[in-house]
């Protein structure tokens, strides 16, 4: 048996894996980290550089990209070593900081997705009043509130160790372990605050958006039929509405698929006397991290202006001549 710290008697055992499996795990996780960091960095540069992308909605996407890029740069690399080696080599104090930042960034990401859904609802349900009611100042205020709430909640929960009250087992029973264990009450509270409440808001809002989008399709169809417009224009308008609806459906589906297994396990595990294997937890948390890879694809790559911006940035990086193109407003 191998140990994380062979010179210590209370060292945690290392996870025994074949070299081929370890190399494959490192390769896959490094690829995930690079995709997360680079994809969200493209979004950040695009919104910062091109004035045509300066809008309240895109400022939410900018902040969301900052969250996911930070997750890829500052959280995932350390989680990668812990997942592959089965050891935490950076001490208990940095373990708390890492766990706090992990919870903070993940919760901030979820709440940004929730804010995007509410913003899109206002844009679709009240398009005429949207520009006057939803200003850049209000969006930035909501973004600051989300960051502050996530910081206070996450660091407060981790450093106070309130989640371990009443548990017979210590948070980290041996040297080389870094795990956030919650009792039954706090497992439910964390899941509600960080996932189920924002998730319910997202699903409810997007269901309402679907209803409004379908209503718009019917209204457009009736108006075009009344004025005897060409059938081709009618079909084009319906296709645009359906494409928007499919994009929103993809947002909800990816969000739920990535996060729900992890939070269900978080809630159920204390009631099973913490019998869930560590490898299962690692797999679920990386599956949840994968949502940060998908966010720039869903919220940016599906929009023409972002695609143009990405092409210009990539062209400038590789010194291509078409880098001089500008975005159309």
TrEMBL record:
It is a multi-pass membrane protein. Residues 39-299 form the G-protein coupled receptors family 1 profile domain. Keywords: Cell membrane, Disulfide bond, G-protein coupled receptor, Glycoprotein, Membrane, Receptor, Transducer, Transmembrane, Transmembrane helix. The keyword Membrane applies. It holds the Pfam family 7tm_1. InterPro entries: GPCR_Rhodpsn (IPR000276), GPCR_Rhodpsn_7TM (IPR017452), TAAR (IPR050569), TAAR_fam (IPR009132). The chain crosses the membrane at residues 23-47, 59-80, 100-118, 139-159, 186-206, 248-268, 280-302. It comes from the Eukaryota. GO terms for cellular component: plasma membrane. The keyword Transcription regulation does not apply. It is found in: Cell membrane. Belongs to the G-protein coupled receptor 1 family. This is Trace amine-associated receptor 4-like. The lineage of its organism: Eukaryota, Metazoa, Chordata, Craniata, Vertebrata. The gene is LOC115819350.
């Amino acid at each position: 048996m191998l140990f994380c710290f062979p010179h210590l008697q209370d060292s945690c055992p290392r996870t025994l894996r074949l070299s081929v499996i370890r190399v494959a795990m490192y390769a896959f996780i490094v690829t995930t980290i690079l995709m997360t960091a680079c994809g969200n960095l493209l979004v950040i540069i695009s919104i910062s550089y091109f004035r045509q992308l300066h809008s309240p909605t895109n400022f939410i996407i900018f902040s969301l990209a900052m969250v996911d890029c930070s997750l890829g740069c500052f959280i995932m690399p350390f989680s990668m070593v812990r997942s592959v080696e089965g050891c935490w080599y950076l001490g208990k104090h940095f373990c708390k900081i890492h766990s706090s930042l992990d919870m903070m960034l993940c919760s901030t990401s979820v709440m940004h997705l929730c804010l995007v859904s509410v913003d899109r609802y206002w844009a679709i349900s009240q398009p005429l009043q949207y520009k006057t009611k939803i200003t850049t100042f209000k969006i930035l205020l909501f973004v600051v509130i989300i960051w502050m709430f996530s910081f206070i909640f996450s660091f407060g929960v981790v450093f106070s160790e309130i989640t371990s009250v009443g548990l017979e087992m210590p948070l980290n029973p041996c040297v080389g372990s870094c795990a956030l264990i919650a009792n039954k009450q706090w497992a439910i509270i964390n899941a509600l605050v960080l996932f189920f409440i924002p998730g319910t808001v997202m699903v409810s809002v997007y269901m309402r958006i679907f209803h409004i989008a379908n209503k718009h399709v019917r209204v457009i169809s009736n108006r075009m039929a009344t004025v005897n417009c060409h059938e081709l224009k009618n079909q084009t308008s319906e296709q645009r509405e359906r494409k928007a609806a499919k994009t929103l459906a993809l947002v909800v589906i990816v969000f739920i698929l990535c996060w729900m297994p992890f939070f269900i396990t978080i809630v159920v595990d204390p009631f099973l006397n913490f019998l869930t294997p560590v490898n299962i937890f690692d797999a679920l948390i990386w599956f949840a991290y994968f949502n940060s890879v998908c966010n720039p694809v869903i919220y940016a790559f599906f929009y023409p202006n972002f695609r143009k911006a990405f092409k210009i940035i990539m062209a400038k990086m590789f010194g291509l001549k078409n880098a001089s193109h500008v975005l159309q407003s």
